[in-house]
Amino acid sequence: MAAQGLIGRDQELDVLTGLIDQVIESGAAIVVLGDPGIGKSSLLRAAADHGRAARLQVLAATGIEAEAHLPYAGLHHLLRPVLSAMNRLPATQAGALSTTFGMSDGPPPEPFMIALATLNLLTDVAAERPVLLVADDVQWLDQQAQAVLTFLARRLSNDPCVLIGAVRKDHDIAFATAGLPELDLRKLDETSARDLLARHAAGLSYADTERILREAAGNPLALVELPVAVRTAADAGLEAPPQALPLTTHLERAFAARIAGLPPLTRDAVLIAAVDNADDLPEILAGASALAGQPVTVAALETAMAAGLLRFDDLHVHFRHPLVRSGVLQLETVTRRYAANAALAEVLAGEPYRRTWHRAQSVSGQDDQVADELEAAHVVSLRRGSATEAIWALERSAQLTADSAKRGRRLLLAAEHAFGLGRADLVDRLLTRAARTSLSRLDQARMAWLREIFNDGVPGDAGRVLALCDLALEAIGASESGLALNLLRGAALRCWWADTGPTARAQVTEVAHLIENGADDPRYATILALADPVLQGQEVTEILDGVVLETVADPAALWLLGMAAHCIGDPVRAADFLSRAETKLRQQGRLGLLSQVLNMEVLDNLELGDWDRAVSCAEEAKRLARETGQPLFNTGSLSLHAMIVALRGDNEQAQSMANEVESAAGSRRLNNLLCCVQLIRGFGLISQGQHTEAYEALCRAFDPADPSFHLADRYHGVMFLAEAAAHAGRVKEAREVIAGLEAEAATTPAPILHRQLSYARVVLADDDDAEDLFTEALRADLIRWPWLRARLELAYGRWLRRQRRVTQARPPLRSAQITFELIGARSWAEQARSELRAAGERIQAQEPNAQDVLSAQELQIARLAAEGLSNRAIGERLYLSHRTVGTHLYRIFPKLEITSRAQLAGRLRQA
């Protein structure tokens, strides 16, 4: 494409310019994929030129491999032209960016707060003038900048903003695997390749030209650079790169051929620039002077610039292409690279962190002093938000450490941070290396815990649970209570997910009781609740009774306490803890843990009758788990979603989803999920009036010999089992099951069990006893239990009508119908309407419920808007741009047949 200075890229450029030309109608994001040198940078430059010609504001950044460890460096470079608009952002978001970019002091902001601030900054700017974001070599941007770009890419469709990011193939980064549209940049065809080579092949023989065409294989950068390499090699009397070398090595050797002929001082300066993690001109010249042992001036760099290797100005030095840096480092010997890092360390005496970093890369053997400094420096990396950099520091520190046990401990610490990133592969590699060291018994226990944390769902392994308990005992003996709690939590999770038997459960709780002041740590209550929710329910309840909710500041602690409450069957308290944790996690932007909290809230909200909230939690939990790289939640999220579908009356879809969950969980005998499968089946069948089949499905969850039996989760099916039995003529069988549960209720205070038993008693009772039981059940405090209360009212109204007391039957039936409608329990609402009609009451036609016409996210936005939140406030809460929220509301109004925001609250109440 001559007009753009490109050859053979007409189709690819048309794709990008098409996105740019449509920016007013819709935003977009696209990934340009290609091998090194295939022309990604040239294509992006042409797209940027087109954007400028179309009067878009173009913001650009290029990843540099040496700067990949500098948190948010790439983001700062990208946003620098528009940072003056930060004052339009909410104070929290403006402060997050200001602190991140060193413009103000403050604690490190959470990553997703930074991402949200970036999104809103760009959408505000784009509202005045459309924006084109161009990010080249995304794989070499720092991980934090990559995460922000991925966040943006998923949310730009409703804003006049286009994001084009180029990524090298075979770099499995989140931005490249986020499901964005892809533009695969392939090699040039032969005609285009010859045309491009003709521009650069002056003075080459026919044989050299044909060889370059053959070896370049359509790679544009090779077609440009290899002629230079051939000429340089000929001038220096060097051989051209051999044919057997792979293409990427060809390019590096092409650059290296030019480097080899540089004057010594220039070569020193170029090497310093290659190993430096900054582009500061004075620093590079100072480092080159230290390496050379004599002053090095700008004149040395001018020679490198003339050779086409780099460019510089008064402040900065940049390589013309990242492969130049690779070529330099490939050409120079290890000894020279070590010497260059030592020279930089000498120059950086006033910057301890960076000095340590370069000292660590200047040591050829072991050096305990540098190793100690590097271990200390990893804390700085964490504070800056770069766990990847911290892991490298600890790994390198381990390499430099003479003592085997200390080396192993540093590798284990690196593995802990790798777990935080969700990198099971990296954890395994670090543990394998640590296993070859002389670990102390305590560190061996720590390694055992690290091996467990990705495998909590291994089924029925009582032996492993007991082994973890033994390790926890050793940790307790060494006054390492934190490690003991971690080990026991891993053991307890095994007991929760699968049946490990009473002996293993008892051992977990027995060892937990040996931890001094254990009850002061939220992990302790969680361990007891996970391991044995029935026998330990009373103690966990007493611990939770002693917690003042408002005084718990740590959202992770709130999450653990909420988990404990959830496991012992206390959905009211669980919802309170988890809701507070959710609020704090949103404020901090900690979306990884937020997705787990939301996931756990689903079932508690179902029990408490807030089904819209349950749907919103399930939808957002799934989205955030995907965005934060937590694939382990897939099956659990699917089972919870299936429960919602079943309760809302879509039996066919619910049964299909139950089969999918069973397929995933059955081979591993995960009792927790298999119990959920039977609940899903029972809920769906009951909603369709298939009570016999529902009873058969549900009774499996109450049979200790069945793989679907689970100590705690079966409690969620008690009232459904009783209802199915009453309709299916299986009352006698059901009473036997309920009698066993009554005995358990004398042991555990689990509210979910006691509440559901109150329903089971009345529907299974003889007529002579039923009214007293109904009165007792409805007299209880059910303010937080509208779903249960409506079920009781429906059953009571139905019983009254059967007793021919139709006038008395109408009020509870009417109350039940209203509650079911508000909750979204359509099949039960229809049952209540049917009973009311049978009791002689005329029923008006119902308008469609909001949940029937809105998606989960639309319903969430509508509810928040009805509460009076602005678009910007809703966006902050849901991590969307305020303009995206506005677009959703624009679509919501006609669906609800309203015309203004003021009508939302009334319409949602009607639904």
What's the structural blueprint in terms of helices and strands?
Blueprint: H1 10-21, E1 28-34, H2 40-53, E2 57-62, H3 73-79, H4 91-100, H5 111-128, E3 131-136, H6 143-153, E4 161-168, E5 182-184, H7 190-198, H8 206-216, H9 220-236, H10 247-260, H11 264-275, H12 281-292, H13 298-306, E6 310-312, E7 317-319, H14 322-331, H15 334-347, H16 352-360, H17 368-383, H18 387-400, H19 404-420, H20 424-434, H21 441-452, H22 462-477, H23 481-497, H24 502-512, H25 522-531, H26 537-545, H27 555-567, H28 571-588, H29 591-607, H30 611-627, H31 634-647, H32 651-666, H33 671-687, H34 691-699, H35 718-728, H36 731-745, H37 751-764, H38 767-779, H39 786-802, H40 806-823, H41 826-838, H42 850-853, H43 856-866, H44 871-878, H45 882-896, H46 904-910
Parallel strand pairs: 1-4, 1-5, 2-3, 3-4
Antiparallel strand pairs: 6-7
Helix pairs in contact: 1-2, 4-5, 5-6, 8-9, 9-10, 10-14, 11-12, 11-13, 11-14, 11-15, 12-15, 15-16, 16-17, 17-18, 18-19, 19-20, 19-21, 21-22, 21-23, 22-23, 22-24, 23-24, 23-25, 24-25, 25-26, 25-27, 27-28, 27-29, 28-29, 29-30, 29-31, 30-31, 30-43, 31-32, 31-33, 32-33, 33-34, 34-35, 35-36, 35-37, ...
Description:
65% of the residues lie in helices and 4% in strands. The strands form two sheets. The chain has a five-stranded parallel sheet, with helices on both faces. About 1% of the residues have low confidence. It is built from 46 helices and seven strands. It is globular, with a radius of gyration of 33 Å. Among the domains are: 183 residues, P-loop containing nucleotide triphosphate hydrolases (Rossmann fold), CATH 3.40.50.300; 71 residues; 176 residues, no CATH class; 79 residues, no CATH class; 59 residues; 61 residues, Winged helix-like DNA-binding domain superfamily/Winged helix DNA-binding domain (Arc Repressor Mutant, subunit A).
